[in-house]
Amino acid sequence: MEGNVQEVKRVAVIGAGCAGLVALKECLEGNLQVVCFEKNNKIGGLWNIKDGKKDKDYKGPTVYPSLVMNTCKETSTCSDHPVQDDWPNFLPWSLFLEYLESYANRFQLRQHIKLNEEIVEVSRLDTERPNGRGWKVVHKNTTTGSESTDTFDAVIVASGFFTEEYWPAYKGMDMFTGTFSHSGSFFTAEEYKDKDILVVGGSYSAGDVATEIAVLSRNMFVSATHGFWVLPRLLDGYPHEAAYSTRIVNDVISIEDLRASLEEKVIKHVDPFEYGFNPARRFLRQSHMFNDEIWRLKRDGKVQVVPGIKEFTEDSVIFSDGSTHHIDHVIFCTGYKTKCSFLKDMQHDSAIDLNLYKHMFPVGVPWADDTLAFVGFWDSLGVYLPCMELQSRFIVSVLKTHPRYKRPESVEKTWLNSKFRQNLSSLTFSSFSLVIETLSLYKLSQLSMNIGGIETC
Ligand SMILES: Cc1cc2nc3c(=O)[nH]c(=O)nc-3n(C[C@H](O)[C@H](O)[C@H](O)COP(=O)(O)OP(=O)(O)OC[C@H]3O[C@@H](n4cnc5c(N)ncnc54)[C@H](O)[C@@H]3O)c2cc1C
After folding, report:
1. Strands annotated E in 183-303
2. Is the CB of 176 under 6 A from ligand 1?
3. Ligand 1: which atom is nearest the Cα of residue 63?
4. Ligand 1 in contact with 384 (CB < 6 A)?
5. Fold of the 169-232+270-332 domain
């Protein structure tokens, strides 16, 4: 046992969304003393909507009331808390939030969660020494504004990957007299009735938002620079995950064979070229959406697909093919940036700059001593909760191990330079193999092997 490694007893978890709840539960299971800080007045993170409307008091992005999960209930939930049999295959946001609440109740998590407490600073007490005496954690009460400071042996960041809306910039936007918004604040289609609407983006939220508004708007244009692929939630009668999240896919089938087989299945269902969605690159090398409506609306003229934006004029948008359309309102469905502004000693502008080894431990920060860990920091095709659950188990096992798990320097260097890491922030991977690496089953297998799991068929 290494003498200078401080034993981890007290852990702070930041956030009580999916990631924070599973991290809290796994810490308790590992007999650690844990406090979970949540800046909002309720648990559940992104899935918080009140009575089908935006809760004005909720700080941060949320999903929209029409959202139905794009992953099925069997694969989207935790190993130790199965979802009710009579719930639908693909859960609407309200049932998923109910699931998270029942998870918190079942494992008696609420008594360990401090609501309305925002973490404003996390810093190492001593960056000079390897065992650094732990972490200073400053938290602010969001109702009274009063600040308090605590110390913890370890910190688990579960504050969310989708934290800040990403807004692209185009020439002429400043002279445009129409209005702009982001899918992160989309709640009802009513306000777009009889208007000319432009949805920018070719991924999940672009499909959801466009199809919901298209039945009411005068014109609905969807602009995607490279077009997009459309996947139904059910492929050949099975949840789409069944087509790629299997051991045979992970371990036996070549990447090109898998791509060809997936493309064949997808095209059989909705041929993106016939419908004018025109993906410029092959499947999973660019945007795709899970959507069961958009091709019908396109067929019926309710949705028009246009290429990338060239520039804005006073009341219109000019597209890269030279076409021009009058637009009243633009909704950017362009995703999110990741910010952890409380990490004062680790400046970063994006999730990539965070340099998380296997999405969990900061690379090149030796003084963090693997007592600063992240849960849920990736963007991937596939499910989140089960991967977060295994990440949490892995992190707890690292925190409780003496000497702590040490990555060889060469492993860190390889990770820093890997194309995989450089492509992490989007699904527009240059290589299909990079996509495979982020698929949830692959991640689950890798993580579970690392903590002594056994692969079963
Ligand atoms: C539109 C959309 C659709 C999605 N659909 C699916 C799907 O179908 N299936 C699926 O598996 N995943 C889906 N996801 C992925 C989703 O991100 C995960 O399912 C999951 O909700 C992420 O949980 P999280 O805990 O990491 O983050 P969040 O849900 O964002 O929770 C983070 C929590 O941390 C709190 N917090 C943040 N900063 C602080 C701070 N400084 N101090 C204290 N508290 C803080 C926040 O208030 C929040 O409660 C979707 C995501 C989006 C955006």
Report:
1. 196-200, 219-223, 229-231, 234-235, 238-239, 288-290
2. no
3. 1
4. yes
5. FAD/NAD(P)-binding domain (3.50.50)
The 10s digit of each residue's pLDDT in 75-106 is 889 999 999 999 999 999 999 999 999 999 99
Same topology, domains 10-163+336-456 and 169-232+270-332? Answer is yes
- State if residue 15 touches ligand 1 by the CB under 6 angstroms criterion: yes
Look at residue 380 in the predicted model and tell me its pLDDT: 67
Q: Which two tokens stand for residue 238?
A: 């099975």
- How many A from CA of 400 to the centre of ligand 1? 27
Q: Which long-range contacts (CB under 8 A, 24 or more apart) does 410-414 make?
A: 411/357, 412/357, 412/363, 412/364
- 30-49 confidence digits (pLDDT tens): 999 999 999 999 999 999 98
Does residue 45 have its Cβ closer than 6 Å to ligand 1?
Answer: yes
The CATH number of domain 10-163+336-456 is 3.50.50.60: yes
The residue type of 84 is Q
Pocket test for ligand 1, best of 96, 384, 389 (most atoms within 8 A of CB): 384
What is the model's pTM?
Answer: 0.89
Substitution candidate for ligand 1 out of 97, 101, 116, 162 with most atoms within 8 A of CB: 162
Distance 70 CA to ligand 1 centre (A): 15
Residue range 323-335, pLDDT digits in tens: 999 999 999 999 9
Q: Which residue has the tokens 């409780």?
A: 400
CB 37 less than 6 A from any atom of ligand 1: yes
**For a pocket test of ligand 1, which of 26, 46, 389 has the largest count of ligand atoms closer than 8 A to its C-beta?**
46
Maximum distance among all alpha carbons in the chain? Answer: 71
Contact between 6 and 125 (Cβ < 8 Å): no
The H or E element that residue 210 is part of is helix 204-214
The C-alpha atoms of residue 365 and residue 372 are separated, in whole angstroms, by 10
DSSP code of residue 280: S
Residue minimizing CA distance to atom 14 of ligand 1 = 384
Burial of 96 (0-12, 13-18, 19+ CB in 10 A): buried
Domain-wise residue ranges, the chain: 10-163+336-456, 169-232+270-332
pLDDT at residue 433 greater than cutoff 50: no
